[in-house]
Design a protein that fits this description.
By secondary structure, this protein is of the alpha/beta class. It has a single domain, classed as Vaccinia Virus protein VP39 (Rossmann fold, 3-Layer(aba) Sandwich), CATH 3.40.50. The chain has helices spanning about 60-70, 70-80, 95, 100, 125-130, 145-150, 200-210, 225-230, 255-265; strands at about 35-40, 110-115, 135-140, 160-165, 180-185, 210-220, 235, 240, 250, 265-280, 285-295. The strands form two sheets. Strands 1-10-11-6-5-2-3-4 form an eight-stranded mixed β-sheet, sandwiched between helices. Mean pLDDT is about 75; it is low at about 1-15, about 15-40, about 45-50 and about 85-90. InterPro entries: Methyltransf_12, METTL2/6/8-like, SAM-dependent_MTases_sf. Keywords: Cytoplasm, Methyltransferase, Nucleus, S-adenosyl-L-methionine, Transferase, tRNA processing.
Length: about 300
């Protein structure tokens, strides 16, 4: 009865399921007979599991302010504890986002990317290995994470530039040329930002995106299993929760996401839920995951995307 439940891939003891990764870091295969994407009506209803998903009143203003003030410290401590060992390398990125290849007008064109929220380089370094004709600007909220990126033997200033940045207030144009980026990746990043500041992040990245450039987005969807596991005391606001380590997570509806991007002057190209299942073979358990995978573009002349 009191036996400790085994962790699902991508989870830590601090309830930190960053993304759906298997033991080799790849995304689980599609389920037979299930579509990869779904409409909002297919997302599991909030009340499906009693006691989960946090139905209590939102947290106090004092608690919200304290978590906001300590956000950088909490992420820095996260990377101090886990260094480069927590998240698997995202070799699935180019497979899931074919736009990384399609955005070239010419086959030999060198793409300029911005990875907003690069962590310790789990997306950055596989991308640099897979594509020799790409230059990547990579930034993260955590100074410790950026230091770990720069210490990676694959890091070279000729192909990438990593820097610390609070996307809610630090102007990206101090590091990245205005209108100089073909593609921005925003992968499991916006969910960690306070909902009141999400628009600031999108406005910031829009300034460095070329007309016709794209933002590739993937993050937690409404009523993902990670959301349903949160207890009531973890609730900070509507669809907004705090983990045991002080880091926070928001769970998006596609309607809200479209509104946020539209408010930053970015147009929706695709915006769909992705339903997957994460399997814990040791425990013989299978849980539903709900993600939102989207593509937005900056109005203007097409760059081949």
């Amino acid at each position: 009865k009191n036996k400790k439940r085994g962790r699902f891939p991508g989870e830590s003891e601090a309830s930190h399921p960053k993304e759906d990764v298997g033991s080799n870091g790849e995304l689980p295969p599609r389920l037979p007979g299930r579509n990869q994407s779904s409409t909002a009506e297919s997302v599991p209803p909030r009340g499906e599991r009693d006691g989960l998903g946090g139905s209590a009143a939102p947290a106090s203003g004092f608690r919200l302010r304290k978590l906001e003030e300590e956000a950088q410290k909490n992420w820095d401590l996260f990377y101090k504890r886990n260094t480069t060992n927590f998240f698997k390398d995202r070799h699935w990125t180019t497979r899931e986002f074919q736009e990384l290849q399609a955005c070239r007008e010419l086959e030999a064109q060198r793409l300029v990317l911005l990875e907003a929220g690069c962590g310790v380089g789990n997306c950055l370094f596989p991308l640099l290995e897979d594509d020799r004709d790409v230059f990547v600007y990579a930034c993260d909220f955590s100074p410790r994470a950026v230091d770990l990126v720069k210490k990676n033997p694959l890091y070279t200033p000729e192909r990438c530039c990593a820097f610390q940045c609070d996307l809610t207030k630090d102007d990206l144009r101090t590091q990245v040329p205005e209108g100089g980026v073909d593609v921005v990746t925003l992968i499991f990043v916006l969910s960690a930002v306070h909902p009141d500041k999400m628009q600031l992040v999108l406005q910031n990245i829009s300034r460095v995106l070329k007309p016709g450039g794209v933002v590739l987005f993937r993050d937690y969807g409404l009523n993902d299993h990670a959301m349903l596991r949160f207890k009531a005391r973890s609730k900070l606001g509507e669809n907004f929760y705090v983990r045991q380590d002080g880091t926070r997570s928001y769970f998006f509806s596609k309607e809200l996401l479209a509104e946020l991007f539209a408010g930053a002057g970015l147009q929706s190209v695709s915006n769909d839920y992705v339903l997957r299942e994460t399997v814990n073979k040791k425990e013989g358990l299978c849980v539903p995951r709900v993600f939102l995978q989207s593509k937005f573009t900056k109005p203007g002349q097409s760059q081949g995307c």
